[in-house]
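Entry 12.
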Amino acid sequence: MTIKMKNIISISEARSNIFDIAEKIQKRGNHYLFTENGKAKMVAMSAEEYDSLMEDLALAKDPKFAAKIKKAEDEIARGEYVTLQEFERELGIVRPTNSLVLRDKAKKDYSANKRKK
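Predicted 3D structure (tokens):
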């Protein structure tokens, strides 16, 4: 399988730009393919993205996980699910009706007013 990459550079060029490359790969999906004598040698990505990829691969290899996904998909197809609003109501979570709350990886809360139609 061949993956198209937009950031392809020689190892020699990477050596002189390693700090810049290390900064750029922090943006998710921004990878570098390093070449030697015109042939692909290695790929660089952020440690966070690498960890996520390894976790996904481990889950993909687990037959029990695949069975759970299949079971969930079948339940959804049969309509056996609850909406987020129903789930929150069951847990007693009350949100202001005119705001939306988002959470980023840094666990900061942000809110914005909904637009009225």
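Annotation: The helical segments are 11-16, 18-24, 47-61, 63-77, 84-91. The chain has a mean pLDDT of 84.
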